[in-house]
Amino acid sequence: MIQQNWYLLNAALALLTATSVVAQTPPTLQPETETEVLTAVTGTNLEEVIVPTPNQQTLPTFELNSQTQVSVDDSFSTVSLNTSIGENVTLPFQDTTVIIADSSDRATNSEWTSGRPDGHAPIGVMGDHVHKAGEWMVSYRYMFMAMAGNRDGTDNLSTDEVLRDFMVTPEDMTMQMHMFGAMYAPTDDLTLMVMLPFVSKEMDHRTRSGVEFTTNSGGLGDIKFTGLYNVLRENRQRVHLNFGVSFPTGSIDERDDTPAVNDQILPYPMQIGSGTFDLLPGITYLGQTDDWSWGTQLNTAIRLGQNSRDYSLGNRYQLTTWVGRQWTEQVSTSLRLSGQTWGNYDGADSSLNPMMIPTADPELRGGTRLDLGLGINVYFPEGSLAGGRLGVEFEFPVYQSLEGPQLETDWQLTAGLQYSF
Ligand SMILES: [Cu+2]
After folding, report:
1. Are 219 and 356 part of one and the same domain?
2. 28 C-alpha vs ligand 1 centroid, how far in Å?
3. How far is the CA of 345 from the centre of ligand 1 (A)?
4. How far apart are the two ends of the chain, measured CA to CA in Å?
5. pLDDT confidence of 74, banded at 50, 70, 90?
6. Looking at the predicted structure, is the pLDDT value of residue 94 above 60?
7. Rounded to the nearest whole angstrom, what is the distance from the C-alpha of residue 139 to the centroid of ligand 1?
8. Same domain, 261 and 410
9. Which of 325, 322, 338, 345 has its CA nearest to residue 412?
């Protein structure tokens, strides 16, 4: 038994330059190697990680550092060390407590870890995780939203019904977004995040006289800076606060041709930005067990003042909760509920005529929606793609009530790539 522990220690030392493994109750080490082990242990800036003994009944995978994962199998007979360079060592594990020392993070098995496929939330959630000190992440997300048909409250309205009250009605709309993100953690408790969206929108209309036409808009959206501040790490759970600010970099002067007027200022939902500085406060809770994970995030958008066209968007409040199931070390799936409510606009753009089309009425913008999301995450803990992630999430509303007539959301898809280093 002691001998086996000793093999474990030696192999781990050989594998991990900044990490080392020692038996807590010192075994009778062979004299010629004992010095070597002790030197290695004292020579690194150690924090201890305890792999519990079998009778403690917890476990088994956790991140030793961003490159190395340690796992103990269910029967507690072996310990595996997997490194990002693809090396993989499995060693016998006996009933002695082993301390695995790590120079970077206190990664006890009671610690929540991002080193698994569901270690990040479903890809449609932003700002769900903090990083370790010194770690970077870059990401790209593609989002597609499809809207078709009008609704007032929870009742569907036909095109003819809308045209009884307005000269023109929207019939359907698509929104696409390419979102580039970067995260960096100056400390273990603080992660900084920036998000750069590029948006394009297309809306199809019909007039009372039966003419159909399409308008388009697109460009850089509102850039968002967020600080994520960790306030709790306990029992494989975490809580962090989200402090975000949205900058009015997106256009609110989008124009296109309509049958009535060329180069007409487009109505509210076709604009790209809010035109105001917006505060984005929120709070995120995460938890996990060996196979399951879950999280809840409250996030809000509070508009500050009015934009240069004399209006401000309604505030938005969103509460989302998800559950993830890890199936393998690389694949997890998720189920998510997202409820959000957002208000009508304050003020009005005086170049828009609210009698003409419902999208030009600032009082027909608010709504409440409950979405159900199905997601999959793929994680590459090792090999040439180590640190990479792929996420896809499909969302559709299960409840939707709108200040209408307003176009209803039918479904949205988010697909993204993330890479940490
Ligand atoms: Cu990240």
Report:
1. yes
2. 44
3. 33
4. 37
5. low
6. no
7. 8
8. yes
9. 338
216 CA distance to ligand 1 middle (Å): 32
Asked if the bond preceding 248 is cis, omega within 30° of 0, the reply is no
Closest CA to 137 of 390, 379, 421, 391: 421
The two three-digit tokens of residue 240, written as one number: 């962090």
**Of 49, 79, 102, which residue sits at a domain end?**
102
- Which residues span the domain enclosing 52? 2-102
Same domain, residue pair 59 and 180: no
| pLDDT tens digits, one per residue of 267-316 | 999 999 999 999 999 999 999 998 999 999 999 999 999 999 999 999 99
Give the CATH number of the domain where residue 196 resides: 2.40.128.130
For residue 271, what are its two tokens?
Answer: 């604009």
Enter the tokens of residue 119. Answer: 């270690």
In-domain check, residue 294: yes
Confidence (pLDDT) at 267: 96
- State mean pLDDT over 193-217: 96
**Is residue 340 located within the same domain as residue 413?**
yes
Q: How far is the CA of 130 from the centre of ligand 1 (A)?
A: 6
Report pTM: 0.74
- What average pLDDT does range 41-47 have in this prediction? 28
How many angstroms does the Cα of residue 283 sit away from the middle of ligand 1?
16
Q: What is the pLDDT of residue 80?
A: 62
